[in-house]
Design goal:
By secondary structure, this protein is mainly alpha-helical. The chain has helices at residues 4-16, 18-52, 71-77, 80-111, 118-124, 126-130, 133-144, 150-157, 173-200, 205-213, 218-246, 250-255, 263-272, 277-308; strands at 55-56, 66-67.
């Protein structure tokens, strides 16, 4: 077994051996373009947005940046639009993630069973997920548009709407967010299904056989075998979908021009329509802080689960 002294000697040999130093230098040279692109496109913009969040900076008025400290954050928390967008973002995130988790779990349980055509259904379930988000938004916008939208036509056909009535499904911000939530659930449930299906296939059949011997039915096996074994995968799925849902932007641009329907939309509007880079940067960092809270909670729950098991 290799001890600490042996490892220390190996590291020393790498830096003292001439050929090893050349190999290390060659590897660093090859990685330099990647480091440069990563720094230029990822690290530097993050640093720049952090700096801008403490400045009053507007590209349109021609004035120079003025340091204002935490004023951008104070003004942000007094902004009604920010709280409205936070409410809609939280609403969208909670409803879509919960629905996708429940539907994805039961879809995964179904696709994990042996039945004729299982491979076919496993293949076609990917279609909504593979569809472009904007295309998905346009599809659902057509379903709920007034006049000749699919929903209106179907309800007229089955006589749930009286002749001549034409509901405005997308007339309010609440309705828009509800339709966007439905579109997101339809698109992202397959992702949740495939993720949980992979986890289900790693569960030992012996656990289910033991539960059946003890007289456990479907619900007891689900509560005492499936969910505990799937818990780490469930946490990963929830965190990934929560982060993605909280950053919702593109699908809402299809349904509305109201930026208060999500934090990301409002941030984009302030940054690239009105060019208030200081305000937009502060809003972006607040959004990042909220997402980091979700990540910390996930890590703590995962750590607690690993300690208990």
């Amino acid at each position: 077994m290799e001890g600490p002294m042996t490892k220390g000697k190996s590291m020393t040999r790498i830096f003292t051996d001439k050929r090893s130093r050349k190999d290390l230098l060659f590897a660093v040279i090859l990685l330099l373009p990647t480091f440069y692109i990563l720094g230029k496109t990822f690290i530097y913009p993050i640093y720049q947005s952090l700096v801008w969040s403490f400045f009053k900076y507007n590209l349109m008025d021609g004035s120079s940046a003025v340091f204002v400290g935490l004023d951008n954050f104070v003004k942000l928390f007094k902004d009604r639009d920010f709280w409205v967008s936070t409410y809609f973002t939280g609403y969208f995130t909670v409803i879509s993630t919960a629905a996708e988790l429940i539907l994805g779990l039961f879809s995964a349980l179904l696709l994990n069973q042996m039945f004729k055509g299982r491979t076919f259904f496993r293949a076609i379930i990917i279609i909504p997920w593979a569809m472009l988000t904007l295309v998905n938004g346009l599809l659902w916008k057509w379903v709920f548009q007034s006049g000749n939208g699919a929903m209106t036509v179907i309800l007229h056909k089955i006589h749930l709407l009286s002749e001549g009535s034409d509901p405005l499904w997308l007339a309010s911000a609440h309705n828009i967010v509800n339709v966007a939530t439905l579109a997101d659930i339809w698109k992202m449930t397959p992702f949740m299904t495939l993720l949980l299906l992979a986890g289900l296939q790693s569960i030992s059949p012996d656990l289910y056989e033991a539960a059946m011997i003890d007289g456990a039915g479907f619900w007891k096996k689900l509560m005492y075998v499936t969910i505990p074994q799937l818990w780490p995968i469930l946490m990963i799925a929830v965190v990934l979908r929560t982060i993605a849902a909280f950053r919702v932007y593109d699908i809402l641009t299809v349904f509305t021009g109201d930026p208060t329907t999500s934090i990301s939309y409002l941030t984009f509007n302030k940054a690239f329509r009105y060019f208030y880079l200081g305000d937009a940067s502060a809003m972006a960092w607040v959004s990042t802080g909220i997402i980091l809270i979700f990540i910390v909670l996930y890590i703590r729950m995962l750590k607690k689960n690993s300690q208990e098991s």
